[in-house]
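Human: I would love a firmer grasp of how sequence relates to backbone shape in proteins. Could you go through the record with me and say what the backbone is doing? Here is the record:
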Amino acid sequence: MSIRCQVTGKKPGYGNQVSHSNHRTRRRWLPNVQRRRYWLPSENRWIRLRVSTKGMKTIEKRGIESVMAEMRARGERI
């Protein structure tokens, strides 16, 4: 499974690591993705999401029901 936030869609960023001698090698920056369980009251069940810390803040601010409705509108499977 890819390292991707299910809420915000964040995925790894790519670029160069530049050494002191200006030697460049490819590297990637991984998003801070965590597995979290959220209670979905409308369906009376727990759901598991792979969420970045920014996604967690979004869920705290807007509520899990609103976020789930938006994810389903995008066609994401839960």
